[in-house]
Amino acid sequence: MSSKKEFISFPPGYLGSRPEKFPLIANNDRYFAVNKPSGLACFQHEWTLGKPDLSMALRRELLNEKPQLKKLGVEGLFRAYNLDPELSGALVFAKNEESEALLKNAVGSSQLVFRFHLLVKAETEDREFVCDLPLAKHFHSKCMVVSHRTGKKSETRFRFLRSFGQYQLWEAETNYLRAHQVRVHAAERGLTIVGEDFYSEGDLVYLSRIKRGYLPSKGREKPLYDRLCVHLVEVEFQIPEVQLEPVLAPLPSRFETLLKRLDEYRGGRG
């Protein structure tokens, strides 16, 4: 693993009107990884039309023979797995066809472990449980539904981490990541994710709601974190034939700030 701070940058127009810069959170002979922000698609499909596409931006830079990518030894763009646009966190790309085959086979064989941190309001007293409801794409809407007839096998293991008064931090772990899986399984088991507006009603957190006596300044108050509070913090490789270090992705800075404020004010009184 490289010890030097490395990054990939994009000019204006690639991922929006502003330039973007992503520090690498992992880099070796087989793959590199970035800490994807919420709002970016991994690739274009019917659910992500119109959203900035990280894979397309990288492909453009490969065609332009971008020095940063050449220096990394990237032979082509090979995504190991998909991460929903609404989620942030570790996104791994293989550097060549051989590594792509290794990682995609590992994903298909449940040899990768995906660990998420999510901030929720819980309607359960359990502190650890498994949800294995099968999931299928809705026929008409851009969402997933539980279906015992047409759904594909899915399993998410949930574990309580700590409390912030009325809010809680949980870990969600799975060996195979389907679209919207963590969000659907959380909602089905009574975990309302902060920022969720589709599968449950998870209101955003404002400082005025958790800090007694706080009055916002003039103008409309902004939430402490305006995204879905789900972040892929770790990807662990359990591939028998090779030893690969896990990829760790720090929480977004505003997500961290939200947790600090909740800790400081104990998440308000509800």
UniProtKB/TrEMBL annotation:
GO MF term list: catalytic activity, acting on RNA; pseudouridine synthase activity; RNA binding
Species of provenance: Pelagicoccus enzymogenes
Domain of life assignment: Bacteria
Family: Belongs to the pseudouridine synthase RluA family.
One Gene Ontology biological process: enzyme-directed rRNA pseudouridine synthesis
SUPFAM superfamilies reported for this sequence: Pseudouridine synthase
A matching Pfam family: PseudoU_synth_2
InterPro entries, per the entry: PsdUridine_synth_cat_dom_sf, PsdUridine_synth_RsuA/RluA, RluA_PseudoU_synthase
Name of the protein this chain belongs to: Pseudouridine synthase RsuA/RluA-like domain-containing protein
Lineage start: Bacteria, Pseudomonadati, Verrucomicrobiota, Opitutia, Puniceicoccales
